Amino acid sequence: MLTAKVRKPFMVYHIGNDTSEMLTDTHPAHRIFFQVYIHDEPGDYVRIDDLGDRTKELLVGRMSAQDNIQLTRFLERSQDLKDETFNTIFNYLRFQWVLGS
Known about the structure:
- The protein has 101 residues and is mainly beta.
- The chain has one helix at 46-59; strands at 10-20, 30-40, 69-77, 81-83, 88-99.
- The mean pLDDT is 88.
């Protein structure tokens, strides 16, 4: 990971926890949270912001019947951050999938 030659900017995603809605004993809805991290060369965050805006535009409100995704929601965007391991600047966007049964 530390020696890989990766073109920047690049994105990494992480799928997080699966949360039951606990609406009723028979209701199948639950949520899965995921983050999209956008990394770039140190400098300004213009490209990161543009890529984040486009990513949000492409994902919010999307659904997929074959994957049982009823809705994709945007939750938050992080502050501007630095990654010393990758020697990048980055921020992340956090989303939620609402899933059926």
